[in-house]
Design a protein that fits this description.
Order of helices and strands: EHEHEHEHEHHHHHHH
CATH superfamily of the largest domain: Response regulator
CATH architecture of the largest domain: 3-Layer(aba) Sandwich
CATH topology of the largest domain: Rossmann fold
Helix content: 40-55%
Strand order of the largest sheet: 2-1-3-4-5
Shape: elongated
Organism: Clostridium carboxidivorans P7
Number of strands: 5
Number of helices: 11
Keywords: DNA-binding, Phosphoprotein, Transcription, Transcription regulation
GO biological process, one term: phosphorelay signal transduction system
GO molecular function: DNA binding
Number of domains: 2
Structural class: alpha/beta
Protein name: Stage 0 sporulation protein A homolog
Distance between the termini: 34 Å
Strand content: 5-15%
């Protein structure tokens, strides 16, 4: 099993220490650092780039959303899991749009946290049910995310439907290509067509809408 280098970013010392204690019990986890705001995350990554960051959304100096935007522009390979007590739809959509791989609520059980990190490292999108529900509500209230569901389903080809289902389950392009024995370029073309029919250019928004329709 691959060793996953993890950076913890949270402004609460108790939270940082608690997470570090839990994660260091896992043989394939190495906590490479613990910082208290987004600015410190960026500074840390100049010297030691982690595989995955547990990122608190509300921190002084630089919050998790802004940090995610800047970090993914500099280090697109880093996996970012947003850690929060605030299941706010606007924050969720914004952070995911900037490239975060999912949200984890701070009251998550230790074993669920470990599973979430391992799954995110493998390419899955992590959204607890309470957050997913909030996302659906947020997207449903936004007029630009209201396609005619029956019309969209009828417009999808058999292959597009197959790929749309996998997209909604959190599969990345490489995983979809491998499963269907097609190239990643072909997958990208299909997903582009799916986005066009859904009326969005965002993977997370598309995944949420597909889950509602299929």
């Amino acid at each position: 099993m691959s060793n996953i280098k993890i950076l913890i970013a949270d402004d609460q010392t108790l939270m940082r220490d608690g997470l570090k204690t839990i994660l260091e019990l896992e043989e394939n986890f190495t906590v490479v650092g613990a910082v208290k705001n987004g600015s410190e995350v960026l500074e840390f990554c100049k010297q030691n780039v982690p595989d995955l960051i547990l990122m608190d959304i509300r921190m002084p100096e630089m919050d998790g959303v802004k940090c995610t935007k800047m970090l993914k522009a500099l280090y697109p390979q880093i996996i970012i899991l947003i850690l929060t007590t605030f299941n706010d739809g606007d924050y969720i959509i914004e952070a995911l749009n900037y490239g975060a791989s999912g949200y984890i609520l701070k009251d998550i059980e230790g074993d669920e946290l470990i599973k979430a990190i391992n799954d995110a490292y493998k390419g899955s999108m992590m959204l607890p049910s309470t957050v997913a529900k909030k996302l659906v509500q947020s997207l449903s209230s936004n007029p630009k995310f209201k396609p005619n569901e029956k019309k969209v389903i009828n417009e999808l080809s058999e292959r597009e439907t197959e790929i749309a289902k996998m997209l909604s389950m959190g599969f990345n392009n490489k995983q979809i290509a491998s499963s269907l024995f097609i190239s990643e370029g072909t997958v990208k073309n299909y997903i582009s067509n799916i986005y066009s029919k859904l009326g969005t250019s965002d993977r997370t928004s598309a995944a949420i809408m597909i889950k509602k329709m299929l």
